[in-house]
Amino acid sequence: MSDPVGELDARFSDPTATARPWSDVDNTLSYAKIFWLSTVRNDQRPHVTPLPAVWAYGALHFCTGAGEQKGKNLERNPHVALTTGTAEQHAGLDVVVEGVAERVTDASRLTELAGLWKDRHDWDFTVQGDVFVQEGEHEALVFAVRPVKVLAFGKGEPFSQTRFRFA
């Protein structure tokens, strides 16, 4: 599968800017430690929370307890946005991933993801049935978000906004 091609949005970019390559976005998603997950409550108010996520298999993966607010929100509306980047104003790349959160229930995929969580975040999960379990008792549902749209905001000179769309 070839890398998606970005489209520069000249309205929000320096006149000398070019579209950021997908490799920059892939690198940011692969090495980010914290993402901000945006979901929608039943009464349509937004809910935003920080969490670690893992970029693998063409999707961003995160986990949550079924009874947590984000878990409840996802039951009703699986459309989400995940953001990551840097606190720097004049350097770095901020990335927004929009898509639909889908449960991951395949035991072999969950086992692979648990290994990635350990490698990237030093979190210990075991797989029991179709969930992650931490410390033998805390169950977490695992979700995958395949990008529908990705926005990449290049900060510094030249500043840029690149959009990637997925079929």
TrEMBL record:
Domain Pyridoxamine 5'-phosphate oxidase N-terminal, residue spans: 28-118
Record's keyword terms, sorted: Oxidoreductase
UniProt keyword Oxidoreductase, yes or no: yes
Membrane-crossing segments per the record: none
Pfam families the record matches: PNPOx_N (PF01243)
Superkingdom of the source species: Bacteria
Protein's recorded name: Pyridoxamine 5'-phosphate oxidase family protein
Protein's organism: Paractinoplanes aksuensis
